[in-house]
Amino acid sequence: MIGRLNHVAIAVPDLAAAMALYRDTLGAEISAPQDLPEHGVTTVFVQLPNTRIELLAPLGIASPIAMFLERNPGGGMHHLCYEVADIVCSRTALVKAGARVLGDGAPKTGAHGKPVLFLHPKDFHGTLIELEQV
Ligand code: CO
After folding, report:
1. Active site residues
2. What spacing in Å lies between the alpha carbon of 55 and ligand 1's midpoint?
3. Does residue 58 contact residue 41 with C-beta atoms inside 8 Å?
4. Which end of the chain is more exposed for a tag (fewer CB within 10 A), N or C?
């Protein structure tokens, strides 16, 4: 069901500092910041030859990553994103297998303008999983 690793997301307390670290110190190509109000985050993508790194900073007071940053003030790995061909098909199979989908279970539009949903970390060895339909 799952295909390529689309990105690894890292929650960061200071987006400008994280961008400078990846761009200037690590010498990577990075995108411009994009606000995703529906998800309560601002994202930057670091383009690597084989995948991407998503830098995530909180946007607004009800950001879902605010609590994560409270527990991990210096930032930390937040989720992995796997590509799937059909997100509704994948969701149906995963729910049938006992996995929990976060929120109301309906796919939302993600950072790449494609449908995404998140799976409960307790069902995946402590790792929050994002599925993105490509
Ligand atoms: Co993501």
Report:
1. 130
2. 9
3. yes
4. N
Backbone angles phi, psi at 37, to 5 degrees: -60, -35
CATH 3.40.50.300 fits 5-133, yes or no: no
Residue owning tokens 């402590």: 126
| Domain boundaries of the chain, sorted by first residue | 5-133
What pTM did the predictor assign?
0.93
Measured in angstroms, how far is the CA atom of residue 35 from the centroid of ligand 1?
13
Task: Give the pLDDT confidence of 85-132 residue by residue, as tens digits.
Answer: 999 999 999 999 999 999 999 999 988 899 999 999 999 999 999 999
Task: Decide if 87 contacts 101 (C-beta within 8 A).
Answer: no
